[in-house]
């Protein structure tokens, strides 16, 4: 996209198309599921040691997200997804494409970029807990959660309505703001100017001539990390598209391993709850281990010990799945 900004002067800017703006928003929305999928893969190597990451996955992602976006806002005046599509943020009142964001605009941009997906994840988790009947025992906490969900639904509805209005105004050239957030920050988007990139041959020439300095090495590492992130984002989007198109082959699916042999003890205690050794009352599966318990038995165990009674893997009530058996 950078070639579109090659002809621009310091006092003019070209508005990106609505398709590029929507595309970068879609890319931004894939960062969290991609990160959490990688985090789950990392946890699976040693659930006992790294299981706590799952309980704090929203906070871990928010930290990573903040560091990533802070780097891009500082160096490119744009978020990660905006940089990927060759866009940058500029002040709407002083639309010079070589101008920098003010410190206030940069900080507010960073806060809004991080805060919105974090709140979304938390409210979504509250909704799932409410559906499963996992409400806090404290009445005041239940009251706060319920009204937080309702307030978020109202806000989301209003934001979507305003978002459509801003899209239409942007397309019809009645507004330079592509979203309410940009209006709030007095920012708009334009194409970033092309940057000079040192080729691999030039780097080798510097190395041979003894002109390769620490700054060149840091620049090379930064460039490699950026390209890796951008390629990973593209790859994840491609995999999502492939799977959503209902192709016969799922790119993320792994070959099925052979069925495990059933031990004598497993046959002896088959169809019994591992805690009370009785036929499960309200059968409930624990996803981290695959064992089925009585709902009351496993709930009490998790509240007290916070792990699977059989395997010892870290677990919480969110990992329980009710099984509905037809008798």
UniProtKB/TrEMBL annotation:
Which pathway does the UniProt entry assign to this protein? Protein modification; protein ubiquitination
Report whether Transport shows up as a keyword of the record.
Answer: yes
Alphabetically, which GO biological process terms does the record hold? Answer: protein import into peroxisome matrix; protein monoubiquitination
Predominantly, its location class is membrane
- Which Gene3D superfamilies does this UniProt record tie to the protein? Zinc/RING finger domain, C3HC4 (zinc finger)
Which CDD domains does this UniProt record tie to the protein?
mRING_PEX12 (cd16451)
Location of the protein in the cell = Peroxisome membrane
What Gene Ontology molecular-function terms does this entry list? ubiquitin-protein transferase activity; zinc ion binding
Query: Where does the Pex N-terminal domain start and stop, copy by copy?
Result: 27-244
Q: Its GO CC terms?
A: peroxisomal importomer complex; peroxisomal membrane
Q: Which Pfam family, any one, appears in the UniProt record?
A: Pex2_Pex12
Q: Give the bilayer topology.
A: Multi-pass membrane protein
Keywords, alphabetical: Membrane, Metal-binding, Peroxisome, Protein transport, Transmembrane, Transmembrane helix, Transport, Zinc, Zinc-finger
Q: Where does this protein have coiled-coil stretches?
A: none
Lineage top rank: taxon:
Eukaryota
Show the InterPro entries listed in the entry.
Answer: PEX12 (IPR017375), Pex_N (IPR006845), Znf_RING/FYVE/PHD (IPR013083)
Its biological purpose is as follows: Component of a retrotranslocation channel required for peroxisome organization by mediating export of the PEX5 receptor from peroxisomes to the cytosol, thereby promoting PEX5 recycling.
**Family assignment from sequence similarity:** Belongs to the pex2/pex10/pex12 family.
Protein name as it appears in the record: Peroxisome assembly protein 12
Source organism (scientific name): Microctonus aethiopoides
